[in-house]
Amino acid sequence: MSGSGYSTDEMMSVTAARYLKDGQVCFVGIGLPSQAANLARLSHAPEIVLIYESGTIGTRPDVLPLSIGDGELAETAELVVSVPEIFAYWLQAGRIDVGFLSAAQIDRYANLNSTVIGDYDHPDVRLPGAGGAPEIASGAGEVYVMLRQSTKTFVESVDFVTSLGFGRHGEGRPHGAGGGPKVVITDLGVLKPHPATHELTLVATHPGVSVEDVRSQTGWDLAIADEMATTDLPSDQELAILRDLVARTEAAHRG
After folding, report:
1. What DSSP character marks residue 163?
2. Residue of 29, 99, 98 whose CA lies nearest to 64
3. What torsion do the CA atoms of 211, 11, 96, 61 make, to the nearest 10 degrees?
4. Which letter, b or e, does each residue of 7-19 get, where b requires 16 or more Cβ atoms within 10 Å of its Cβ?
5. Closest CA to 23 of 40, 6, 11, 4
6. Are 49 and 26 contacting, i.e. CB atoms less than 8 angstroms apart?
7. Of 2, 4, 72, nearest to 34 (Cα)?
8. pLDDT digits (tens, 9 = 90+) for 63-73
9. Is 182 exposed, middle or buried (0-12, 13-18, 19+ CB in 10 A)?
10. Which whole number is the average pLDDT over 92-98?
11. Structure pTM?
12. Do 139 and 99 touch, CB atoms closer than 8 A?
């Protein structure tokens, strides 16, 4: 916990949840993205449609899922379809408003790597791989990235482009490939791509975090917005909803 009474993970989940709008169709990942999406559903966006990769549509879990195959998702879903249908009918057809992604590396143009660290043929670390991330990156209307910030994760150039941001040199995205990353939410602040250069730019820091703190954890000369903001503190209501959800999840899995 931080000295202000909330953890960095809670700050990330609350910040991400605030970006979600009621009625959006959201392709959700496990972990912090799931916390954020369900916090939004239980607070300001009750009509948000949550879709998980396993084929559950309109799921309203009482506890957070441990994986995309968690039975809680199917039991509380409005509809369960096959995985190919999720990708072909929903994602590739442009029916997903927002997709959440994370990765092992991100670069200044929001390209993501979850494939290898080091040379592809002789990597230092071989990572879990792409999964559905490239399709989410290319098919969702916009992408939100949640990633803890360090010089190991925020690198000058990713070792492998698993999921396209705005290209190796910020050249942009192919026509019809979705809007790409809209916001990157970290444990230190919020970054957004510049509308002209596509370079990630720091637009807000979390309370108690300085611009220099963020710069020191970034592997390139970080661009800073002309008008910097400070993220609003989590409200008592947001923290109460989130902590109740986490506590119910922990209790259910202990049982």
Report:
1. B
2. 29
3. 170
4. bebbbbbbbbbbb
5. 40
6. yes
7. 72
8. 999 888 889 99
9. middle
10. 94
11. 0.94
12. yes
- The per-residue pLDDT for range 97-111, each reduced to its tens digit, is 999 999 999 999 999
53 is catalytic: yes
Q: Is 137 helix (H, G, I), strand (E, B) or coil?
A: helix
What is the rounded distance in angstroms from the CA atom of residue 44 to the CA atom of residue 130? 32
The Cα 189–Cα 213 span in angstroms is 10
As a whole number of Å, the end-to-end CA separation of the chain is 26
Pseudo-torsion of CA 6, 10, 209, 212, nearest 10°?
Answer: 150
Q: How crowded is residue 44: how many other Cβ atoms within 10 Å of its Cβ? A: 15
Tell me which residue of 151, 160, 165, 166 sits closest to 115, measured CA to CA: 160
Provide mean pLDDT across the span 94-98: 95
Catalytic residue (one of 53, 72, 135, 199): 53
DSSP per-residue string spanning 70-103: -HHHHHT-SEE--HHHIIIIIITTT--SEEEE--
> At a CB cut-off of 8 Å and minimum separation 6, what does 133 contact?
101, 103, 112, 114, 162, 163
Q: Which two tokens stand for residue 180?
A: 């790409």
Q: Is 238 left (phi over 0), alpha (psi -120 to 50) or beta?
A: alpha
Q: How far is the C-alpha of 188 from the C-alpha of 149, rounded, in Å?
A: 7
Exposed (0-12), middle (13-18) or buried (19+): which is 35, by Cβ within 10 Å? buried
Q: Give the Cα separation of 66 and 70 in Å (integer).
A: 6
Predicted confidence (pLDDT) per residue in 38-84, tens digit: 999 999 999 999 999 999 999 999 999 988 888 999 999 999 999 99
